[in-house]
Structures are given as C-alpha cells and as structure tokens.
Write a structure and sequence with these properties.
Number of helices of chain A: 28
Number of helices of chain B: 12
Largest sheet of chain B: 3 strands, parallel
Number of strands of chain B: 8
Strand content of chain A: under 5%
Order of helices and strands of chain A: HHHHHHHHHHHHHHHHHHHHHHHHHHHH
Shape of chain A: globular
Oligomer: heterodimer
Strand order of the largest sheet of chain B: 1-2-3
Structural class of chain B: alpha/beta
Largest interface: A-B, 22 and 29 residues
Order of helices and strands of chain B: HEHHHEHEHEEHHHHEHEEH
Strand content of chain B: 15-25%
Distance between the termini of chain B: 50 Å
Radius of gyration of chain B: 23 Å
C-alpha cells in the first residue's frame, strides 16, 4: 500500500528535526568570514591569475579588452554629453538647463505637455535633492545599456519571432538571465571586464535584453497572419515580407518593448553601482553602508523620481496606438509649428547651458537634501518611538516564532542531515531524477566550503518566501475575486515591479535596523507584486461554470475559495511560490551588506577584498545552486500536480 | 513558383489580407512594388484598377477606414494590378454580410465579363457558386466528384453526395426549359407561344402565367416538346 505524500513529507521533516536536535552543533561546516578553505583560496588564486592575464592572454587582448574599451568609450561619450565634464572642458557638453530643455522637448514631442511638465519637475526635483550629477550618470548609463540592448535585442527578437528553432534555443537562456539573482553574475563579469562602466553596462544588458527579445518575438508571432499570407501569395521574397509587412505591422508593439527594456535597465543600473556603475546607486550604497537612513532616503527619492521620469516619458511613445491612419495635413502642419517653437526653446536652453555657468552646473545653493534627510530621520525616529509595537513587535514575533528555530535547525544541524532532508524532499515531491539533481547540487555547496552561509541565506529565503506567500495569496485571492480590488492594487503592484529592489532597503533599514530582518522584509516587498499577480491570474482563470455550479449547490464564499478556487488554481499557486522564492532569494542576498550575513555578504566582501575574492565568487555560485535546487523541486511539484 | 506568383496568377483572400499600415493605393501597388516597378508607374497602374473596381476617391484611405465590402474591392484591385492570367478567389465574400455579398458577386461577374480573365472561385455556398460560376467543380476529401455547368449538377448529380449538396438549390432557378420539355398529352393545346430551350425556367414563368396554353419549347427551330404550368408548379414545389 502506498503511503500518501503529505504523510511522507511530514514524517521526513519530523525525522530531520529530531536528528538535527540530537546531533546539534556537530559537522556544521562553519568557518569564519575571513577564513579561506583550500577550495576558495584555489579559486581566489585563479581569479588573481586571470586578472594578471589581462594584458597577456589573447582572449583578453583580442576579445574582452576591446569589448570593454568600446563600451567604456560609448558610455563615456554619453556621460560627457550630459553628466561629467567633457575633455578639455570643465562642464559637460550640455549643462543642466540644456538637459531639462531637451528632455522636456523630447517628451512633449512624443506625448502631451502635461507629461513634459511632470518630467521637467521630476528632473528638477532630482537636482534639488543635490543629486543632479548622479541622476545624469544614471540616465547616461541607462541610455547606453538600452541602446546596446535594443541593437542586439530587436534583431534577435525578430529572428526568434520568425524561427521556431531560434526561439527554442533562446528561451531557456532568457529564462535563466531573468531569474538569475543579480549578485550571482556581477562578480564574474567584473572579473573579466573589471569594475567600472563596461561591466555595469554588460550586467545591465543581461538583465534588460531578455525583455526586449521576448516582446519583439511575441510581436512578430502574434501578427494577423492574413496580410503575410497575401504578401507571400504575390511572390514576395522572405526579406520583402519582413521589411514591408511584418516589421511595419509589429512596430508598435516593439516600441512597447522599449519602455519595458528601459525600466529594467533603470532598476538594474542602480544595483550595478556594486560593480562600479556611476550614478544614483552609489549614494544609496554609501548610505546603506554607513547606515544613514536620511541620506539613503534622499538618494532613494531621486531613484524613484528617475524611474517615474523614465516610465512616463517612454510609455507615452509606446501607448498602444490602435490606428495606422496618419494625421491629416493640417494637423501635421499645426504640430510642426508647435514643435519648431518648442524646439527653438530647447535649443536656446542648450545654448545658454553652454555659455553661462549657472546654467551649466547645478547651483550648489539649490540643495534641499539636508532638510529631506532630517525629515526622513525624524519620521523614522517617530515611527520607531511610537509604532514600536508594530516594528519591533513584528520583528520579534517572526524572529522568535520561526526565524530563530529554523536558523538553528538549518545551520546547527550536521550538513549530512540537512542534505538528506533536501534529497528526501526532492524525491517525494519531484521523483528520482529531481532527487539525484538535488543531491549533486547540495553536495557541490558542501564541497565549496560555504555550507554554513548557504544555510543562513536559505533560512532567510524560506522565511521571506513563507511570509510573502501568506500575504501574496491573500491579496491574490482578493484581487482575483474583485475587479475593484484589482483596480486599486494594480498601480502599486506595477510600481513595485518597476522600482529597483535596492531602494526598498532604505526604509526597511530605518524600520528594522541592520539585521537579517531588513533583508527579509525587503525581499517580501519585492516579491509580493509578482506573487499577487500570478495568484490573481490563477484565480481568474478558474472557469466561471465551476463557480456557478458551486454557488448553485449552496456553497458559502469561504467554501468557494477553499474548495473550488484554490484547488483549481493549485498549479499557478505553486508556480507563484516558486517565483516568490527566487525573488526573495535575489533580494535577501543583496541585503547581505545591511547585516543579513550569509552568502550575499560574502559576495559583497569578495568584491572589495582581493584576498576573499575566491570566496565571493563561490558564494555567487552557491546562491545559484541554492536557487536551482528549489526551483527544480518546485517545478517538478507543479508539473506533477497538473 | 515565386515567379509564377509574381506574374501569372494572383489571389483574393477571405480575410482580405490588406496591409494595415498602407493606404489603398500602396496596398494595390504592393504586388508591383515587390516586382521592382517604379513608383510613378505602379501608381499609374494602381489608379487604373482602382477605377476598374469602383474605388475612385478612396486611394488615400486606410483599410481600417473602409467597410468590409470596400476592403475586398481593394483586395480584388490588388489581385488585378499585376494583370494575372488566372485569378484565385478563396472564399472572398464569406466574411461579408449578405447584402454587400450580393453586390460583390455582381461585381465579380461584371469584372469577369469585362476582363475575360479566368477566375477560380472557391466557396462553400453552392448558391454563390451557381450564381458566379460557368462551370462548377464539387470537391470532396480533396478529390473532384463532379465538374459541370450548374444545370448539369442539378439535373444529373453524379452521386448521392452531389445530390445532397444540390438539393436545396431552387431547380427553377438553374434548369432550363429543355429539362421540362415533354411530348404533348392527348387533348393538350399545341398552339401556345414558342420559347427557346436555353431559357431558365424562372424567366419563363411570367409568360406561362400570362398564357393558359402550354408553351412550345424549341431548340434552334427544332421542336422539343411542350411545358405546361403544372410542370412548372411541380418543379418549383419540388414534387417532381
């Protein structure tokens, strides 16, 4: 007779806890942060060797160095234009007034005057926060990464849209690039391309290109097929059909993809400050490192403003235009007159910004950052004083109820007990193949010497994912059942997904201090939107007839939710859990340097301390292994439940 | 194949397949454009066919501004622009409403007479086939079951399938008097008006009603027999 899965799972968990308790403190593989294992120092030596090879090895001389040079040059070109003094000059080619004028003009030309006004105010606000140059650097970095992403992504996307084979090859790569935690690939890229703008641009591209490729190929694939068929019936060559029919028809949607690509790049450019991206990420990191919440808020606001600015100014151009009819001659003429007028204004502002100093460099006197920082500090202090129960209470509740026990269980048990548990989990949920994979990957972590840190990270990820799922499923059910709730929550979810995860660390640091809880809370905030959206979709996809039948049978609302909607949406909810876990993991490791410790901390330490570089690189790989183990187990579970 | 498609034949599609981002004249000129015809020349040719299909004044409109019928006129014009030898129409009017459909059928018949092009018209609607077709091929499972004039199909269906297919066709609209002509019965008047054997039964009705005598049917002066009003009634009611 077969024992049912839930009992098997419960049984193995109980056994794991029992064994962990009995053998507590033995074989935990804990080593000090600054201690290297033979393996980590071996990798560190290889990394040093690689660095030494930069001027000798042909791979560097003929491939990597030229790429780095070209991208660095490209970024520098754009930075000289708006951000940093141009060669042989003390000011950028275009001063702040010129930049404001140009951006206002560009937004006005593609959108309405209201959006232009909003963009202008956001830019000026960034300046007023004392962040002008950082903001310009971020814009320059974003621009460079986006232009390169589009140059690579649109042709690839079109190709993937036309050829099933290309799509099949690209899809797993794109999936990987999108779920890969940021920290994992930053260090290897920096190792090859050095810390600096080139590495940051390449890392950003890895993150933003998948979106561009996906949307472009989707645009090509979902076109109305009948004009294409007609074109072919007339004897068009493939190229003619592509350039005269498919691309013109898909153009609007491809432009829509540009907006998404820009948003991905903006959010990544901030994090990329960890590997030397100039821009707003720098002050955020500095503030986080010195635990200065007020300064963090100042830079964080600038990041948020920049994100809104980028979104508003590119989404207008991407607004889904339903008609192909061009405006009439009269409308064109009117628009042209207005554009020439405003264009002249913009040109004048550029000219002034090149001739007068106050218009070239943001005036030092206009800086409200001290006031904003003080305000933010006061507000945080007030919350800490008066809402003590909610912040510290919540933190303690979670810490004592699940966080601490789980951390003890995971990190203080012998490694083989936990490895056995993971393999058992994989076997019960996913089957033999998943179990073998889990065993191999878990053993790789053990061998790497970073098992203890991996367990700390795993603890935080599991707790974060658990809380995310509780909140996410509740909100998901709510939005899935009520259109009104969806309308109310949708803007928050969208904003939550476009803002860089980094900036959430700032308020969390204010509320919870430099603890692992800050990292967990940030992960939760970052992961909730995607979970809510998926659960909502799953609930909405439950056939209406099922619910009608249940209602007709006299079910209460609670019965409908628990007995019809949730079971029917089980697969989607499992996938949402998987996504939640990956998202939380990606952010929890970033939280490494606000006191969360674990693998993320090692990655960041490895970035700054050459003697720990090997350890940092391995920590990055361990994050990936951890992610893959649980991704595989969950995917297998979702597949089996279908 | 591509060469053939460029010059010898062209197609008209059920869902039009117009390019949404081009106006009428550039849609029509598209097939010339891919053949490398210069802009002035292809626009001149496009204007000719625009007149042919009655789209004058719409050359700068965009497909989404046109009704379904108008869009299909563009489709027709586009197919005609390369002056093909054979025109394939793949269920061209299935997406149109019945009134516009009738207009467009007339239009195709008119174009057929004016241009004298071979047209292969694919349809699921037998009455449409009867209306526009000179010869109809009925296909089943990818093979042709019967080819013939509408009259052949209705009068002498090759098998059960074709018979089933043509059952709903009003015979009086398809068959000619030749089909009804019979030897006069005893005592029947044989001095009625004389009509040609190729006349469709429906078209003979008014004369038959006006005159009480059976009419005489003749083929080029050769008498084939008579047709009485009873015969006509029987064929219309489907009793015969």
């Amino acid at each position: 007779m077969q024992v049912r899965k839930p009992y098997l799972l419960l049984g193995s968990v109980a056994l794991w806890i029992l064994m962990g308790r009995l053998l507590q403190g033995k074989n935990t593989l804990q080593i000090a942060t600054y201690e290297n294992t033979p393996f980590t120092s071996f990798v560190g030596d290889r990394a040093l060797e690689l660095r030494g090879n930069r001027t000798e090895s042909p791979a560097f001389i003929y491939i990597f160095n030229p790429i780095r040079g070209a991208i660095d040059g490209f970024v520098q070109l754009i930075r000289n234009l708006i951000a940093v003094p141009a060669p042989n000059s003390v000011i950028p080619i275009i001063g702040w007034l010129g930049v404001v004028g140009l951006i206002a003009f560009a937004v006005f030309a593609t959108s309405q005057w209201r959006t232009a006004l909003l963009s202008t105010s956001l830019l000026l606000a960034c300046g007023a926060l004392g962040m002008w140059q950082y903001t310009m650097d971020s814009i320059a970095m974003t621009l460079a990464a986006v232009l390169l992403s589009l140059a690579v992504g649109i042709p690839l996307g079109i190709w993937a849209g036309l050829s099933d084979r290309v799509l099949k090859i690209l899809t797993p790569l794109l999936d990987l690039a999108q779920i890969l935690p940021t920290l994992v690939y930053m260090a290897p890229i920096a190792l090859i391309f050095m810390i600096g703008a080139a590495s940051a641009t390449i890392a950003t591209m890895i993150y933003s290109i998948p979106i561009c490729i996906r949307i472009t190929s989707h645009a090509i694939r979902t076109l109305n097929q009948s004009p294409i068929e007609a074109s072919e019936s007339m004897g068009s060559t493939q190229k003619q059909t592509l350039t005269k029919v498919q691309i013109p028809m898909a153009k609007q949607m491809i432009v829509l993809g540009i907006n998404q690509t820009v948003m991905a790049a903006v959010s990544f450019v901030v994090v990329a400050a960890l590997i030397g991206a100039p821009g707003l990420g720098k002050p955020v990191i500095e503030a986080l490192i010195i635990r200065n919440v007020g300064q963090g808020f100042v830079a964080g606001f600038a990041v948020v403003f920049l994100a809104i600015l980028m979104d508003r100014s590119t989404s207008a151009a991407a607004k889904r235009q339903t008609s192909f009819i061009p405006p009439t001659a009269r409308e064109i003429k009117r628009k042209r007159i207005i554009l020439i007028g405003t264009g002249l204004l913009a040109a004048a502002s550029v000219f002034i910004s090149r001739t007068v100093l106050w218009a070239a460099i943001w005036p030092r006197e206009i800086d409200i950052s001290p006031q904003v920082a003080r305000l933010a500090n006061n507000a945080t202090a007030w919350i800490l004083d008066n809402l003590y129960i909610f912040t510290v209470g919540f933190k303690d509740l979670i810490s004592y109820s699940i966080l601490n026990p789980l951390e003890v269980q995971l990190s203080a048990s012998p490694w083989y007990v936990t490895v056995a548990m993971i393999v058992a989990l994989a076997l019960i949920i996913g089957g033999l193949r998943t179990a073998i994979l889990a065993l191999v990957l878990a053993m790789a972590i053990v061998v790497s010497g970073l098992w203890y840190e991996a367990m700390l990270t795993l603890t935080q990820t599991i707790v974060g994912c658990f809380l995310t799922m509780i909140i996410g499923i509740a909100l998901g059910i709510w939005t899935g059942r009520s259109d009104k709730a969806e309308r109310v929550l949708r803007p928050f979810l969208d904003a939550g997904q476009t803002l860089p995860a980094f900036v959430y660390l700032v308020p969390m640091l204010g509320l919870f201090g430099p603890t692992r809880f800050t990292a967990i809370a940030t992960g939760i905030v970052y992961a909730i939107p995607v979970v809510v959206k998926l659960v909502c979709e799953g609930i909405r996809a439950v056939p209406h007839s099922l619910i009608e039948a249940a209602t007709a049978a006299g079910s209460s609302t609670r019965q409908i939710i628990t007995k019809v909607q949730l079971p029917a949406a089980k697969k989607t909810i499992l996938l949402a859990t998987n996504q939640g876990l990956i998202y939380v993991l990606a952010v929890v490791v970033i939280g490494g340097f606000v006191g969360a410790g674990g693998l993320g901390y090692l990655v960041i330490v490895g970035n700054s301390k050459p003697e720990l570089q090997g350890k940092g690189l391995i920590a990055g790989a361990a994050i990936l292994l951890l992610g893959v183990i649980f991704d595989r187990i969950m995917q297998a579970g979702a597949r089996r439940s279908a | 194949m591509r060469e053939l498609r460029k010059t010898r034949f062209s197609m008209v599609f059920q869902h039009f397949g117009l390019l949404p981002h081009r106006n009428v004249i550039d849609n029509i000129a598209y097939s010339l454009e891919i053949n490398g015809v210069k802009k002035a020349e292809r626009h001149a040719r496009a204007n000719e066919v625009i007149e042919l299909v009655g789209l004058q004044g719409f050359s700068n409109a965009y497909p989404e501004q046109l009704s379904g019928g108008m869009q299909q006129r563009v489709g027709l014009a586009r197919a005609l622009a390369v002056d093909p030898q054979v025109l394939f129409l793949d269920e061209p009017f299935s997406a149109l409403d019945p009134l516009i459909r009738r207009d467009m059928q007339q239009e195709v018949i008119r174009l057929h007479h004016e241009l004298g092009k071979t047209m292969v018209f694919i349809t699921h609607d037998l009455s449409e086939a009867v209306k526009v077709g000179d010869r109809i091929a009925i296909m089943r499972d990818g093979a042709i079951v019967q080819i013939g004039t509408p009259e052949d199909l209705v009068a002498h269906p090759a098998d059960e399938y074709v018979a089933n297919f043509v059952r709903d066709i009003a015979k009086s609209h398809v068959l000619t008097l030749r089909y009804l002509a019979r030897a006069p019965k005893a005592g029947e008047a044989t001095d009625g008006p004389e009509l040609s054997a190729d006349m469709i039964i429906r078209d003979a009705c008014s004369l038959i009603i006006a005159d009480h005598r059976p009419i005489r049917v003749s083929d080029n002066g050769k008498a084939l027999g008579v047709v009485s009003s009873d015969d006509v009634l029987r064929i219309i009611s489907g009793v015969a």
